[in-house]
């Protein structure tokens, strides 16, 4: 009788090992630990890149996620994703033996148009000239009836100016090089330092993202010129 119970226990254990894996005759105890990563947070003008690590080649992938997203790619991308703060993505990975593993990533943030160039919040950089940690960022109406957002550092500052007397709406604005009346949909940018004076770009785009009352202004790698020469500038600042 003891041998009979031992056989039954063995069969139960063997059946349990096979239950998670169909085909191949092996159990689902492979060393598979999928981990999803992404390049978020990003702006909706950018591309969201999803990657999964901890798996071998030859596996199949099934992705699902926010906004009806599906994919069979190992490392899918989403071009110009919809704006949102708490996006979720799930991947289901199947091995050749029929075992299935899952992982998910939550809290993916996609803001409005944004091009921070890897800068921290409220910073600006002019290559070879200055790097600014902006102490204050504020908006005001100018005497020319335009709206400017100004970031101030100890020895430098940045001003981005928009048409109208109200804070800019979310969107992408084209740099206007001329000093005349600022047209709707355009912006002017100026970086100043106490040692070199004013630097301005002649072309490029300024990105504005709005979240509640906060307005984030950013641009990436614009060509600036001044009486001191030329440089490349970038900013990422938020007016609360």
Number of DSSP strands?
19
User: DSSP helix count?
Assistant: 1
The structural domain count equals 2
Outline the low-pLDDT stretches.
Answer: 1-25
Helix and strand content put the structural class at mainly beta
Distance between the termini: 78 Å
Kindly report the spatial arrangement of strands forming the biggest sheet.
2-8-7-4-5
Order of helices and strands: HEEEEEEEEEEEEEEEEEEE
Inertia-based shape: elongated
Helix percent band: under 10%
Look at the structure and give the mean pLDDT: 88
| Cα radius of gyration in angstroms | 27 Å
Strand content: over 45%
How would a crystallographer describe the biggest sheet?
Answer: 5 strands, mixed
Structure, described:
It is built from 1 helix and 19 strands. Strand 7 and strand 8 form a beta hairpin. By secondary structure, it is mainly β. It has 2 domains: 92 residues, Immunoglobulins (Immunoglobulin-like), CATH 2.60.40.10; 117 residues, no CATH class. It has a 5-stranded mixed sheet, with no helix packed on it. A 5-stranded mixed beta barrel has the order 14-15-16-18-17.
